[in-house]
Amino acid sequence: MPTKRVLRVNELIKQELNRFFLRELDFALDTLVTITRVDTYSNLIESKVYISVWPETRKADVLAFLKRRVYFIQQELNERLKMRPVPKIIFLAEELTLEAAKIEEVLERLKK
């Protein structure tokens, strides 16, 4: 169970990265990138940032773009957050939303 501090750090990182994504990063116009959740280790060394991409076919491109820019993104986050240490950011694809959509589709078919 995460501590209150870790939960606050997760939310803070999510908010700052969302702002940064909106203002600073240029994703393709037909691509929607959403941060679904942030999981930070209790020692605050590392944060896993899970993203959802629509359309799904662009997921690999977006992850590759974010991984190329992770150093720049990390620097910006270090400047924006008023805490030390700032956890190292790792971007991962959110698989739960895709699985939830598949389950929802199966349930809809069963209803008919």
TrEMBL record:
Gene Ontology terms: cellular component: cytosol
Gene Ontology molecular functions: ribosomal small subunit binding
GO BP: any one term: maturation of SSU-rRNA
Gene3D superfamilies to which the protein is assigned, alphabetical: 3.30.300.20
Subunit-structure text: Monomer. Binds 30S ribosomal subunits, but not 50S ribosomal subunits or 70S ribosomes.
HAMAP family: RbfA
NCBIfam families the UniProt entry points to: rbfA (TIGR00082)
Protein name, as recorded: Ribosome-binding factor A
Gene it is expressed from: rbfA
